[in-house]
Amino acid sequence: EKTVARGAKEVFLLGQNVNNYGRRFSGEHEKVNFTELLRRLSAIEGLERIRFTSPHPFHMDDEFIEEFAKNPKICKSMHMPLQSGSTKVLRDMKRGYTKEWFLNRVEKLRALCPEVSVSTDIIVAFPGESDEDFEDTLDVMRRVEFDQIFSFKYSPRPETEAEHFTNVVDEDIASMRLTTLQNLATDILDEKNKTHLGKVYRVYFEDLNQDYFVSGRSDNNLLIKVKGSDELLGAFRDVKITEIGRTILTGEIVG
Length: 255
Fold this sequence. Notes:
Elements: H1 2-5, E1 10-14, H2 34-42, E2 49-53, H3 62-70, E3 77-79, H4 87-92, H5 99-112, E4 117-124, H6 131-144, E5 148-153, H7 171-194, E6 200-208, E7 213-218, E8 223-227, E9 236-243, E10 249-253
Parallel strand pairs: 1-2, 3-4, 4-5, 8-10
Antiparallel strand pairs: 6-7, 6-9, 7-8, 9-10
Helix pairs in contact: 2-3, 3-5, 6-7
């Protein structure tokens, strides 16, 4: 409320497992889960947009997805860290969900909110990952068609359990898998980007670029720029997409 009173129109909730909020409150704290938190934030007058990251797929229950879909103040962009498409590898990672659960959550999300953009994190070559396990990850990639991925080769961290794993995937194989994954992601993104041409999105402008463009994000997290000045900063405008790029779209203000 204080932030909105100072002029903020958008808030961003950040947490490692942000939708686990409130589950472990102790003492006299009111028991408020993340879905209820979103409801209460959306009741703040003057607040126009709510974003958050990163929700854990294990805690994406029906109540959470339904509130996300129906609440107009919640931006329709969901980051769902997959990590691996293999149920076996997910178990080894102690992620708490299966390939089937993840796909089910995406299916319900898109059924209720077709305009949602879905991004993810993926680790390839987790110790013990077989060719079949990696193919499961590619299968999820093809079925979900993520709007953005953040992908990495597995690497151990000092003073963790992972430091002592012995079933490490060969470095050449790991590199090949990462390249394969990223090439597939690029192909998917190129096809999806074509669908944005000519469409109109509501953009909240936040950044003044050096090339006389002002950029901001749509409700579903598309990065969009238009010709303009600092007068657009902090403003909402309707923008028609005129040019497609892999990382940013270009448009013209139409309203």
